[in-house]
Design goal:
homotetramer, about 210 residues, mainly alpha, Arc Repressor Mutant, subunit A, Tetracycline Repressor, domain 2, 11 helices, about 75% helix, globular, DNA-binding
Chain lengths: ~210, ~210, ~210, ~210
DNA sequence: CATGAATGAGGGTTCATTCAT
DNA sequence: AATGAATGAACCCTCATTCAT
């Protein structure tokens, strides 16, 4: 891919995440990417197709997770959950801007193409995690749980944290814009919390 | 408050939730509310102040929860958690449009006034739930948990479900626009899931 | 109708006639009419609807002709043809800009609405003239002629003259921009020519 | 001339006739001709020069008529008129797209070069026909007529018919896009009409 | 000789807001 | 108190053209 194209995508990602799709003008993007205004139409056709290209470009960021997990056939179900959490949290924090776009800005897009792409991403995530839970249940390690809502709790917790950055900066007394420190403090906490939460949830025998 | 004012606020809520703040024009709102275009500036000053008015108007929707809980001093900590979940899920589903605005559209607003309002709402929610957990811990009923992230899991789970309506319609095989059936099926499931999740999480002794 | 609206229509007529629809920008029109650019959308909705409004506004300019003719029931068929020519030539020269738009610019418009309006105008003209010819034939004054093509000759001759202004300025050695002199010289010539042409054409017995 | 050059001219003619000069973009032309966008500037210099090239390329289409007529010195003046009509109608219908461009799209072009070319074409047509009429008058076969306006009636009638295709399709009940049938029906009618019209007009003694 | 990449200018339209009434 | 008219700014997109390769 050409440098400019990638540069535009980067700028679009930053601005869409920060100001939303409707709140970002193609002038903003062109200005941020330091390219001519007409280049956006030239490369992508339209503002909406630019978004679609961005989604396609970044959507693979969670795709590799399940394959990484599949490699380790020796892991126990709980070890798999732990690894799943490690992988997901890392991936999402490494792609926090795109994750922000997907979770907060895509839902209002009215384009059917965008809606379809988003549904696919969510569905894929759901299926990936379901597989692991079902596997644990087959091995009699996990109890009976609501599969979809358990997934919702995992994803929802991560999303909640990433979308309320300002709040957690305040809670942890971290000065703004020191993102490195923020991540260093928060990520381990988040991983530990999710692992504990799921360990308790999945092992608990709800019928006793 | 005059009828027209309330009517405008209702329309704004519907449209902001559906299309976002930037995606909704004052013409849309005026058209939907069947009022003159100039009325919006006339009553509220500006589009942004209209949003602020809307937030102020609706923000109290969770305020009553903690007071309701405080009445029942006889409840056990787990019963309080259960009741908290019941109250939150009901409140959020009854105010799903405003909840959608708060969780997905407000975060991108650049106005400091709006940001402050939003932070207050989130902070208030956090504090409300923290109180109950701390109370349970004092009574040696709840184990040691990450307070803030436990709250994030509760709120995140609910938000995840409400913001992925389309996905859950598909999962539960409910025909679109039959919102009544959707709520009837999903709300009990969600409450049960959250109660189980928290019961396990809070009672589990993570140090053993 | 408001002054501004009429002013915009006038400017649009002048510019469309001179430069065509595609060759005229709404900025041109706004500048010529000395109104704000957004007024065009405000009053007419779009550039194309402005054209449609212009057509509707001016289309009646030939409508009155047949009624004027109908009043004089005493006229002979040839006198009616003569009067028809007088009326048409006068009307078209008095509305030369709009006539120019209809004959040279509307045919390429791709909008179905515009196409329909144009077809109606042409069809009306055709029917008006046909009535008179048929009446003359019934009275055994006119011979058998191809009705539609006879009308085409009348309209085509006038259009040819109006659309080749520059050529006829040269032929008659009239300095440019002296439109008054041009009309004074050309109109009588054109009327006489058409009357002679039709007198010969309609009275000639083509079967002998 | 290279194949590509000719191909571009063909595409330009088709599109200019259909959508006008301003309504056709060089992208349209490049796309229709299946050549690179930059080729058009490369070969012709600019869009306007492309039009000039097209005119030059096609303008000779009426030039041969007078020469063909000149060959037959044996013909009577009326036979010459008849032949003139046959030749003109055929030529115009065989070059209907270019004729359309000349009569409806060139008049609005503001370029002096284009205006000059167009004036030359019209002037040439005028002179060609004048010669024949003058010859007939010298031979005391034709009466006194307005030369220029007689030519205007000939050209105007043909143009009127070709520019109102849709109308005549409707009148003759011919299904759209069956151009072959349309031509087969209309051309003989038009020739006959014009011959009758001119025979009557030219032979009629307007002073008696 | 031919072309993909790039650009400045301008296209039509919609925006939130204001102002005279 | 309420509104139709009006506006300047900004929107996204396409234009004809150029230039390095």
């Amino acid at each position: 891919m050409s440098d400019k194209r990638a540069h535009i995508l980067d700028s679009a990602e930053i601005l869409f995440a920060e100001k939303g799709f409707d709140g970002t003008s193609v002038r903003d993007i062109a200005g941020h990417a330091n390219v001519n205004l007409a280049m956006i139409s030239y490369y992508f056709g339209s503002k909406e197709k630019l978004l679609a290209s961005l989604i396609e470009h970044r959507a693979g960021y969670t795709r590799g997770i399940i394959e990484e997990l599949a490699k380790d056939e020796s892991l126990t179900p709980f070890e798999k959950i732990d690894k799943l959490i490690d992988l997901y949290v890392d991936k999402i924090f490494n792609n926090s801007r795109f994750h922000c776009i997907v979770t907060t800005h895509l839902p209002t897009m009215q384009s059917d193409e965008i809606k379809g792409m988003m549904a696919d991403i969510k569905f894929m995530n759901l299926e990936q995690i379901k597989k692991i839970i079902i596997d644990g249940q087959k091995k009699k390690v996990f109890g009976k749980v609501d599969m979809e809502l358990t997934v919702a709790s995992i994803m929802g917790t991560i999303t909640q944290v990433t979308s309320s950055k300002a709040l957690y900066y305040r809670i942890f007394n971290i000065e703004k814009s020191n993102e490195e420190l923020y991540n260093k403090k928060l990520i381990p906490k988040l991983k530990t919390h999710l692992k504990q939460l799921l360990r308790a949830h999945l092992s608990f025998n709800h019928h006793e």
